[in-house]
Amino acid sequence: MIRTTLISAAAIAAAALSAHAGEKPLFADIDTNFDGVITQDEFLAYAVESGKHTAEEAAEKFEKMAGDDGVITLEEWTEAMIKYDERQAEGSSDY
Ligand SMILES: [Ca+2]
Question: Is residue 10 part of a domain?
Answer without folding.
Answer: no
